[in-house]
Amino acid sequence: MKVYSILALSFLSIMGYQSTKGQDKGFVALFDGKTTKGWHTYGQTFAGKGWKAEKGVLHLDPKARQNDAGDLVTDKEYDNFHLKIDWKVAPKANSAILFHIQEDTAKYHQTYSTGPEMQVLDNEGHPDGKIIKHRAGDLYDLVKSSSEPVKPVGEWNTAEIISNNGLLEFILNGVKIVSTSQFDDSWKALIAGSKFAAWQGFGVFPKGKISLQDHGDEVWFRNIMIKDLNKNK
Hints:
Elements: H1 2-23, E1 28-29, E2 39-41, E3 51-54, E4 57-60, E5 72-74, E6 81-89, E7 94-101, E8 117-121, E9 157-164, E10 167-172, E11 175-181, H2 185-192, E12 209-212, E13 219-228
Antiparallel strand pairs: 1-13, 2-5, 3-4, 4-13, 5-12, 6-9, 6-13, 7-8, 7-12, 9-10, 10-11
C-alpha cells in the first residue's frame, strides 16, 4: 500500500507539473527573478533603487528609493497579449498594472497619461477602496469588476490581462471579472464618463508598454509572464 501510494503521488505530481506547463505554453517570462533586466523607470534608462529583485520576487520598497521614484515599464511594446502576474500588497497599499503605455515624456508625463490599468489595492485599508471602479481588479475608473475574488492583504493574487483585437478581459484568481471592448464607440463613452475625459491620448493606443505602478506604497510582484497573441493568428 505504501509503495502504491508513493507511486500514485509521484504520478499525480508529474501530471500536475505537465498540466501547469501546458497551461503556460507560449508564455515567456518578463521577469527573470533576479534582476530588473527588461524593465526601466518611466522616462529613464534605469530601474529605480526602490524596485528590488530578490528570490523570484519584484518588490517595491519605497524606503529604498533615492530620488528615483517612478513606475516600472517594459523595454518592449505589446499590442495583442495575454499577461499573467502574481501580486500582493502591504496594508493600506495602492498600486496598479498598466498597459498600452506610450513612453513619450514630452507629451505624456506619467504612465497613466495613456495607459489603462487594473487596480491593485488593499480594499479595506486604502481610501480608494470606498470609491466605485477604484477597487482591486477594477478597470480603474472605467469598469467595475463583476465580482471581487481578491485575497486578503498579504496573500498572493494571480491576475491576468488579455487584450486581443479590441477585446479586453481581466481575470483575478481564476475568475473573469471584467470584459469590455476597446477603441470603439462604447470604449470612447467609458472614457468620456471618467476622470480621463479631457486627457488627450488616454486609452487610444492599441500598442504600448506594460507598467507596474510606484504609488509610494509597498507591493510585490512575481511570476510575470506574457504571451504574444499575434503569433497565434
